[in-house]
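Good day; I would like, with your permission, to put a structural problem before you. I would ask you to consider whether the tokens describe a fold that such a sequence might reasonably adopt. The full record is reproduced below for your convenience:
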Amino acid sequence: MLRWIDVLTFAKYGNPEPPRRVEKTEAEWAAELPPARFRVLRQHATEPPYRNAYCRSYEPGEYQCAGCGTPLFDSTTKYHAISGWPSFTQPAARGAIQYHFDESHNMQRVEVRCNVCGGHLGHVFPDGPAPAGLRYCINSESLVRVGEDEIPS
């Protein structure tokens, strides 16, 4: 289980090694991704709160990166945080996520990205529920939910 101290350590000293890497040019990403997904994943945009695909969705399954298909979150860690975006308490695996300090918009936050393709997902905060206290606030455009019956074994 990751804790806030783990998040800060990764952001400061280096992220876990990904299981694989997906590297493409920005032109290749732009050709493959729909415009809204490209803005979020590659240009670090934020989708509007409450008007996104997974904010109020709690169906079982696995949430994968919309850029490369890497498993990022499981629906069992999703909860209603009233933030306007899907919120999770833990990533699917310790090495699924990259952490980076983000001081944009006059705020101090920790940005989260897919550790395989580097796509922007959202941010993580230390105000989530026990036991770890983490809240991964993620853009729906960066995710694809795969239902339990669709997940390969």
Summary: The mean pLDDT is 94. Residues 37 and 150 are 22 Å apart (CA to CA). The two ends are 23 Å apart (CA to CA). The longest helix spans residues 4-13.
